[in-house]
């Protein structure tokens, strides 16, 4: 039994940090709390009662207890650093200082929802073609195991002369399925190994995938630019904003670039010059930041960059929607036609000989 008195500023180990859904829920409730004009401590308690996530509710009650015990909001949030993503912590503290908590949280929620919607659209565009391709693979597997051997036996019994297309279909029935399954297994194993060994390398490999890779990169650059706009608009120093932003990014490679740039800026390098040195940031970002530094309007520069990146991501998504499903359907029709013609072509010749 622990007899030590309760210390409102003592950090507690509370397990893994809040996930994306919980973070968005918390920001949404904080925006509503601020708009309603609730004091911080009662507001956090009210949020704890409304939120369905029991772990998040416990975190909010502890923050309320610390505030009641005399801690500042910054101290109370820092004590829960194991639970809150640092970018959300930094936004809450800075926006509370500026008296603009409601507006900042609303923009943060909009950013989170935009990211979720983009991810949903990407997966919706990938799911149906992947399902169709899985069906095509299942069809070829069933044909190779059940149908093609019977056709091969019939053709051998009649001594039919086989065209090249039929020979290829028969060869594929013997080896093709296992080759495809082996290739898929190898790709999956390689992806798991790369992901476990180096998340940074995994992210870079994703970027090499046509259409999908650039779209993911532009969407994550949009998220980065939006977060930086929010941080800098609250007058957070650039190194602090970059480190907090790194915690909110889903891509480890981009987050590493943010942390490296933060160190360089603390050493005296300018923000635009530092980001331009790292491959994680596209060259198109530099002109925006150069203009922002020259005119002392970096938040506006990041906003303009975010709009440009968002346009690129949206363009790639529209392209994906336009070509992926039709390409998959053409591939399925071609595959089925190839299988049917390859099997029935010698039968047509055989029937003609018999008649």
What are the key terms here?
about 350 residues; mainly alpha; Receptor-associated Protein; 14 helices; elongated; disordered N terminus
CATH class of the largest domain: Mainly Alpha
> Could you give the order of the helices and strands?
HHHHHHHHHHHHHH
Strand content: under 5%
In one word, what is the shape? elongated
How many individual domains? 2
The major pleated sheet works out as: none
- H/I helix tally: 14
Rg is 29 Å
Assigned CATH superfamily of the largest domain: Type II secretion system (T2SS), domain F
What is the CATH topology classification name of the largest domain?
A: Receptor-associated Protein
Residues in helices, as a percent range: over 70%
The CATH architecture name of the largest domain reads Up-down Bundle
Distance between the termini: 96 Å
Mean pLDDT: 79
Secondary structure: number of strands: 0
């Amino acid at each position: 039994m622990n007899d030590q008195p309760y210390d409102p500023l003592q950090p507690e180990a509370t397990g893994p940090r809040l996930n994306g859904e919980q973070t968005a829920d918390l920001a949404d409730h904080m925006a509503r709390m601020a708009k309603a004009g609730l004091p911080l401590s009662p507001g956090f308690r009210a949020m704890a009662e409304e939120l369905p996530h029991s772990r998040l509710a416990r975190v909010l009650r502890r923050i309320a207890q610390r505030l009641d015990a005399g801690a500042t909001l910054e101290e109370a949030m820092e004590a829960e650093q194991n639970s809150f993503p640092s970018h959300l912590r930094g936004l809450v503290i800075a926006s509370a200082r500026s008296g603009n908590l409601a507006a900042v949280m609303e923009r943060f929620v909009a950013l989170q929802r935009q990211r979720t919607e983009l991810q949903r659209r990407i997966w919706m565009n990938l799911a149906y073609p992947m399902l169709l391709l899985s069906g095509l693979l299942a069809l070829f597997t069933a044909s190779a195991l059940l149908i093609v051997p019977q056709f091969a036996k019939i053709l051998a019994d009649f001594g039919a002369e086989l065209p090249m297309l039929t020979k290829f279909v028969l060869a594929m029935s013997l080896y093709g399925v296992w080759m495809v399954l082996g290739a898929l297994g190898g790709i999956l194993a390689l992806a798991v190994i790369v992901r476990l060994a180096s998340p940074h390398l995994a992210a870079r490999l994703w970027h090499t995938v046509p259409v999908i890779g650039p779209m993911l990169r532009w969407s994550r650059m949009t998220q980065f630019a939006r977060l930086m706009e929010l941080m800098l608009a609250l007058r957070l120093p650039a190194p602090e904003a970059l480190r907090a932003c790194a915690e909110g990014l889903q891509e480890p490679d981009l987050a590493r670039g943010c942390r490296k740039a933060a160190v360089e800026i603390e050493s005296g390098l300018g923000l635009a010059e530092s980001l331009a040195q790292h491959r994680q940031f596209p060259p198109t970002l530099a002109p925006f930041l150069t203009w922002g530094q020259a005119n002392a309007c970096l938040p506006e520069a990041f906003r303009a960059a975010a709009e440009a990146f968002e346009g690129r991501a949206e363009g790639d998504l529209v392209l994906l929607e336009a070509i992926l499903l039709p390409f998959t359907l053409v591939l399925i029709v071609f595959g089925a036609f190839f299988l049917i013609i390859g099997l029935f072509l010698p039968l047509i010749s055989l029937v003609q000989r018999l008649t």
